[in-house]
Specification:
two-stranded parallel sheet, globular, transmembrane helix, transmembrane
Length: 233
Amino acid sequence: MNRVLAATRLNAAHGLVIFGVPWLVVGISFAINWAIWQLADIPEQTGTDGFTGGVLALYITVMIVFVQTVTQLLPFAMGVSLSRRTFFLGTALMGVLQALGYGIALAILTRIENATNGWGAGLDYWAPGPMEVDNVALQVLVSGAPMLAFIIAGIGMGVVQKRWGPSGVWGLIIGSLVVFGGLAVLVTWLRAWGDVGSWLTDQSVATLAVGLPLALAAVLAVLAFVGLRRTVP
């Protein structure tokens, strides 16, 4: 357990990059969106408060940070006699802690956003649209569970990059396009988009924003661990 905690602390060695860069990126995204909402007076134009997907910048940046964590820290970790399993568990633990921290931060920012009428501009940014719930504890999970899925996906992509190199990354990209594109074609051929939409609207926010991301994170974690077992520094 102590070695797992050591691997977790290793992930925090470059705290400015790990924590500072994601907030810098999403801060710039927020400033741009707020300026647009303020200058264009979007609530007045549309008659309702508008929401934006700009907060996705935070999720994507954190994912990229964890890609770099695996590709850059794994060789050092193995050089100081940390096993692949220990490194993975420590990195995953850091991911869980960060997802929880981001969930709390986003829940707080959402409450401030609501109290200030969208930062005085009618902007719905930190928990856009259906991602916003009334319960604070549930809001932490709704914002944090997708973050964990992005983090584990980043770890998985880092493993692919480290084990198979650029060819593995391109294979992952092309394979994803084939799979998701094929599913889109299949649903279109079956004329089932209405059924898919109905199923989605029938699900609760907890199912879509907490249950499914956590299930996806679990599957990706297993795949990432299997891939990491034969990865060389």
